[in-house]
Amino acid sequence: METMRDRFAPVVSRLLDEDPRVAVVLAEIGRDGFTEAQRRHPDRVVNVGIREQLLVGAGAGLALTGLRPVLHTFASFLVERPFEQVKLDLGHQDVGAVLVSAAASFDWPAGGYTHMAPGDVALLDTLDGWTVHVPGHPDEAEALLRHAVAAGDDKVYVRLSVRSNRRSNPVDGAGFRTVREGRSGVVVAVGPVLDDVLDAVAGLDVTVLYATTVRPFDAGALRRATESAGTDVVLVEPYLAGTSTPAANDALADVPHRVLGLGVGRRELRRYGNVADHVAAHGLDARSLRERIGRFVGERERAGAGAACP
């Protein structure tokens, strides 16, 4: 099955042909996918080698000349290792770029902890002005890549994954999408966790919102959903658990509410395993999610039933 990353090089290669502002900066990872594009556009496809700080610095330099740089490598080498350059070369200099990651939370377990970055979105949250896309299907990845490159000179992070939902959903690069309505709580499913969430909540009377753009956080969609479904909110994110909990709390600050943040735990898993092993170990498989979500949204119902007893 085609992955999001399989779609990356062909899509960006076409963007290089279509838009003379687009440039690509690589740090060895993914270079083979741009061989033909580099032949056609040798001045706009740059491979800096295994120098991730230079990757970001070079991209910022291209942005200062008026180009729209697309930077790509594994998330741990794109966000964590060169974070100072992301903060200063892009943020402080007020120039934009499109950062496109792969591997992220645990997509390549055999690479070990050096190739895992479950805290990438949380780390970018310490900076101002970033848009963050988390597609859940290769078609969504293509649409969001195109949206990111076309987003003027904004700072955009696109988080690609080997995990994918069974089918794509329409994405607009902005708000959350309602995929299921209920009356006993709201579950926000981010990117590739949607299928497991829908399997988990089968039979539960909850609303499900699908999020592929998580920053800016769609506070309006969450508030509207809680008006009919109640203010018990579960966030299921494919990265560090609780990353979006502050944003959900801010969205509902003026009403009594509860938020449960589910995602990748902080404890390091020291056995490689495979992706499915890591999903299960962090409680993000459908069976574990059903238990955790069901217990959370059922607490208020049980409390209400108890209060009604004489």
UniProtKB/TrEMBL annotation:
SMART domains, per the entry: Transket_pyr (SM00861)
Family statement drawn from the similarity comment of this UniProt entry: Belongs to the transketolase family. DXPS subfamily.
Domain of life: Bacteria
Organism: Streptomyces cellulosae
Domain Transketolase-like pyrimidine-binding: 2-168
InterPro entries found in the cross-reference section: Dxylulose-5-P_synthase, THDP-binding, Transketo_C/PFOR_II, Transketolase-like_Pyr-bd
Pathway: Metabolic intermediate biosynthesis; 1-deoxy-D-xylulose 5-phosphate biosynthesis; 1-deoxy-D-xylulose 5-phosphate from D-glyceraldehyde 3-phosphate and pyruvate: step 1/1
Any Pfam family matching the protein: Transket_pyr
Oligomer and partners: Homodimer.
Lineage: Bacteria, Bacillati, Actinomycetota, Actinomycetes, Kitasatosporales
Protein's UniProt name: 1-deoxy-D-xylulose-5-phosphate synthase
The enzyme's E.C. designation: 2.2.1.7
Cofactor(s) for this UniProt protein: Mg(2+)
Key words of the record: Isoprene biosynthesis, Magnesium, Metal-binding, Thiamine biosynthesis, Thiamine pyrophosphate, Transferase
